[in-house]
Amino acid sequence: MPANILVVEDEPAIQELIAVNLHHAGHHVLRASDVEEATRLVRETLPDVVLLDWMLPGVPGIQLARRLRADERTRDLPIIMITARGEEHDKIAGLEAGADDYLTKPFSPRELLARINAVLRRRAPQMTDDAVEVEGLRLDPTTHRVFTDGKPVDLGPTEFRLLHFFMTHAERVHSRTQLLDQVWGDHVFVEERTVDVHIRRLRSSLEASGHDRLIQTVRGAGYRFSALSE
């Protein structure tokens, strides 16, 4: 599944090489040459993955990694450090700063894509094409189909994305604002109550099989997808 990937790299040739390979793999690429520009893009778009060079002009990339991990909105944002610093203590420092993975230059495009897919599976499973199933409710992103106990369920595109997000983030409470950011995108301006409308539609579609009970309302907090009783 295509992802929005922010490439933070100050060397134009390397930035272009990475961007071309990501485009060929079907991803959408955002580019930044320093921490200030990267911070602005993260604030405006909230990418799915950040590829972050350590040695940047002015503020080093490792400081941006720490900032992203300290911010509630970006603390789960997958980060891959890409750097010429290949010593063990450098790798440890990068990982301790919050990077999910550490790739040393030079690297092959195939390895980079494999690392990206790996962090997406670990940190953002809704961005992969893996089917997910909970108590007989099965969602397949590849075919864009949903089944309850083997029977197909017809969902609209927003309800499909909402269910996919819920199923890949089970047992967590999500506020309406968080759902808007993650499902609609934080660049889309819609009322928070829009979430309630789509939750009702989703529950209605799952009601016949009894799977509507998996989508729980947490009073004063938001919604949770859970196989456990409330």
Automatic annotation (TrEMBL):
Residues 129-227 form the OmpR/PhoB-type domain. It comes from the Bacteria. InterPro entries: CheY-like_superfamily, OmpR/PhoB-type_DNA-bd, Sig_transdc_resp-reg_C-effctor, Sig_transdc_resp-reg_PhoB, Sig_transdc_resp-reg_receiver, WalR-like, WH-like_DNA-bd_sf. Residues 129-227 bind DNA. Keywords: Activator, Cytoplasm, DNA-binding, Phosphate transport, Phosphoprotein, Transcription, Transcription regulation, Transport, Two-component regulatory system. GO terms for biological process: phosphate ion transport; regulation of DNA-templated transcription. Residues 4-120 form the Response regulatory domain. GO terms for molecular function: phosphorelay response regulator activity; transcription cis-regulatory region binding. CDD domains: REC_OmpR_PhoB, trans_reg_C. GO terms for cellular component: cytosol; protein-DNA complex. It is found in: Cytoplasm. The keyword Transport applies. PANTHER family: PHOSPHATE REGULON TRANSCRIPTIONAL REGULATORY PROTEIN PHOB, REGULATOR OF RPOS. This protein is a positive regulator for the phosphate regulon. Transcription of this operon is positively regulated by PhoB and PhoR when phosphate is limited. This is Phosphate regulon transcriptional regulatory protein PhoB.
